C-alpha cells in the first residue's frame, strides 16, 4: 500500500479505534522513552543531574509525591491514614519531561483504609492533582501507586486501585502500580499498567544475603520460563548502592555513604551495589521471560552521587531497547 | 472524679479481703476521700449537659435565644447550631414542610430566614475550613464545598443588618484559613474592634486577629489580644519556650496580662485537686508532702489577692488557705479563709469558702455547746444546698453513695465533713448520740429527698432491694456502738431535747429502722425481753426493706426449709422469752428438759443456720471470734464486730443447757435421741446403748471408730 495521506489517516483512525476498544494502558500515548525515579524529599536536581537527564534523553520522571502512613488525624480525632513526607519542589521540572506522580502507601495505612477505600482513593488523587497544579508539573497522564501489598491486603488494595483508577479515568489519566517480584505470582491488580521493580530483591537485614539490591539468583526464583502478566509492564533497574551495617551479626543500619564509615569492634559493613553486569544479566532474563518492556526501562533513581558509579555507555545500554 | 481510684480500690479489695467478708456491700473508701477544692461549677462526674465543657457554645446559644425568643430552648438551639451537619441542615431549612419538634428550626423557617441563610453559610465555612485543616490538604486542592472560602469572605463582608457581627466573624474565619492575615488585622481594626466590649462575636474574632498578628510577627500585639480574649494558650505561643517556666510562672505570666483569665481558675482547680490527699482507701491517713511548687503558688495567690484589678480575690485567698491546710496548718488556713470571707468573690467561690469554713471549724473549734449551735447553722445551710440542687443525674448516680464515689458536690461535702471530720470528733468527745444523729443525716438525707421528691426515676432494682439501708456508715456505727448509746439515740428520736435533735431527726432514717437494729442486737446479746420490746416497734415498711430473710426453722436441727416470714426476729424473740419463763415454771422434769433443749437449739441456730436472727451479714470465715472489721472505709476506725464473742457466749450457754436437760430428764430413750439429734453418737451409743436410739447407732456403725470419728463439734459434752 502506498503511504498516501489518506492511508496514513485511516491507519491512525484504526489505531485509535483499536486502542479505544482495548485497555487505555496499551494505547501508548506516552510512547516509548527512557525514564527515571525521583525518590527524595526535595525535588531540586542539580546541574549534573539535569545534564544526565539530557544526555540520556530521559523523557519521563516518576516523582514520589508523598507517603500515606498511619498518623494522627486531628480532623477525625484518631489515628488514620494521612499523607506524610510530602515532597517539596524547589526547582521546576525540565521542559519536555513528563512527570508521573508516585505515592507510596504503607501496609499499615492500607489496612487502615479498610471499608473506606473510595474515600481515600479520592483524597490521594485530589492531593496528587493539587500538587501537580501547584508545582506546575505539566499535564499528568499517569499516577503510580507503590505498595508492598500481600495476600491479606490484596482485596483492600484492589478496591483502592479500582476506585483511584475510576477517578483518574474521569480526567483521562491512568493508574500504574509498582510490581514486586513476589507479586508476579498473584493476579494483576485492576490498573492500567505496572512497573516491575528489579531491585531490593533480597533481605538487607539478613547477614547471609549477598547483595540485597540485586542478586540475579533471587530474580531467577520468580522470573523463569515464558511468563505472562495481566497488565503491561515496564522494568525498573537499580543504579545505586549502600552499606549495610551489622553488629555482632545483627542488622544495625543502612549507610548511604559507606566509604566514610569507621567501624567499631563487632561491627561489619556489607557494601552493596547493583553492578552493571548483574543489571544486564537481569535485563536479559526478564525480557526473555516477560518480553520487552511496554514503554521502556526506568532507572532507580535520580541521584548523581549514585549515578556516577555507572558510565554513560552502561546507562545507555540499560535503557537500550535491544 | 474517682473512677480510677474506685477501680483500684476494688482491685485491692479483692486482692486482700476476699477471705474476710461476704457482706452485701460496704464502703470502699473513706468519705474524707472526696475532693473539696472547688472554684468552678463542676460536678464530680462528667455529665450529659452539652454545655458543661463548652462555655462558648452556651454563650453563643444564648445570643441566638435573644433573637429567637426565650421560648426557644437552648438545647434546641445547640442541636441546630452545633450538631446538625451541613447537608441535613440545608434540607431542613429548604424543605416545603418541617414536622420535627425543634423549636429553633421552627423559628428559623418562620421568622429567621436571614439567620437560616447565615447558619447555612457558617456551616459551609466550617466544612471547607475543615478540609483546609485536614492533613490531606494541599494548596490548590479542590475543597468540594458549595462555596469557596473566597466566596464566603465576599458574601460575609457584604452583609448588614442584625446579624452583621456574626457575618464579620465568618469573614474573619475564612480569611484566616486562607492565610490572609493582613486582611484579618484590617477587618479587626476597622470593623470588629469597634463592637461593644461584651459582644460575643468580637470576643470570638479576637483570637483570629491575635493569630494573624502572631503569624505576621507582631507578637506583642498578638499577646495583648490573646490576653483580652482570655486565650492563655495563645498567650503562651507568643513567648519563647524558655520564658514559659514552671506552672507557677505560667500563672503569674497570664495573671500579669489577663488578671481575670478563666485559665487561672481552671488551672487552680486542676492543680489543687491534684494535691488533695488520695491515700485514704484502706490504710488510713497517709500524709502527703506539699511540694515546693504549691508553696510558691500559695505566695503568688496571696500576692494576687491584693490586686484590685482581680475580680475574684476570694478565689486566691481560698486557694492559699487550702494549701495551708494541706500543709497541716489548719489555724493558718482559718485565718486566710477569714480574709476570703470578706473579699470580692464569685458565687461558686463564696459557696466553697463556706464549705471550707465548716470543715476548718470542725477541725479547730472546741467541741462545746457553742460549737454545736454554730454547727447547726452551718448544717442548715449545707442541707439546703443538698435539697436545692437535686437532678435526675443525681438520682441516676445515687447508688454511688455506697462506695463513697463522688457524684454530687453538695452531698459529697456533707459526707466529707460530717462523716469524715465531725462524727469522729463527737465520738472522741463522748457524744455518741450526736455522732449517730449526724451520721444518720449524712447517709439518708439525700436518698430521702430524692424519694420524697417524686419526680425522679431510680434504677428498677433500687426499689426491689434497699441496698443503702444496711450498707452505710450510720448502720455500721449503729451495729457496733455500745447498745446504751444506740438506745439513747432511739429515745431522742421520739423525744428531741433541743433544736439539733429536731433538725437531725427529720433527716435521718427513722425510729423503726433503729428499733430493728436494737432488737437484732438484743437477740445477739440473748436479751429476749428487750428484743421483744424493740422489735415490736418495727414497722411493716421497715420489715419489707430488710436486707435478709430466714428460710430455716430456728428450733429444728434439720435443714428443712421454711418460710420464716417478715416477723421472724420478733417471733423468735417471743418464743425464746416464753421458753425462759416456762422453763422456770414447769414442774415435770421431762417437759422442762424438752424446753431446755428447744431453747438451746434456738440459741445455737440463731448464730448458725439462722444467723439472720442476730446479724445482717454473714462472714464466710468461721473466725468471727477474732473480731473482724465490719468493712473498709469505716470512719470511726477500728470498729470491731462483736458477733464472734456473742456467738461464743451463746454456744456455751446452749451446751450448758443441754447438759442440764440431759441431767434433768428421766427418759433414757429421749436422752439418746437428743444426743443423736445433736450429733453426739458416741455418747448415745456408750451411755444409752440399751435404748432403741443407742442400738441403732451401734448397729449402723461398722466399727466403733466410726462413731468415735463423728464430730460432735457443736456439743462439747
Percent of sequence in beta strands of chain B: under 5%
Which structural class do the helices and strands of chain B define?
A: mainly alpha
Which fold name fills CATH's third level, the topology of the largest domain in chain A? TIM Barrel
Measured distance between first and last alpha carbons of chain B: 58 Å
Give the beta-strand count of chain A.
Answer: 14
Verbal overview:
The complex is a heterodimer of chains A (322) and B (717). In chain A, the strands form 3 sheets. Chain A has an 8-stranded parallel β-barrel with strand order 1-3-6-7-8-9-10-14. A 3-stranded antiparallel beta sheet of chain A has the order 12-11-13, with no helix packed on it. A two-stranded parallel sheet of chain A has the order 2-5. Chain A has 2 domains: 29-239 and 274-319, Glycosidases (TIM Barrel, Alpha-Beta Barrel), CATH 3.20.20; 242-271, no CATH class. Chain A has 9 helices and 14 strands. With 322 residues, chain A is of the alpha/beta class. Helix content of chain A is 31%, strand content 27%. Chain B is mainly alpha-helical. Among the domains of chain B are: 55-248; 673-717, no CATH class. In chain B, 62% of the residues lie in helices and 0% in strands. Chain B is built from 37 helices and no strands. Chain B is elongated. The chains are: A alpha/beta (322), B mainly alpha (717). Chain A binds chain B through residues 71, 73-75, 82-83, 86, 123, 126-127, 129-131, 133-134, and chain B through 130, 133-136, 138-142.
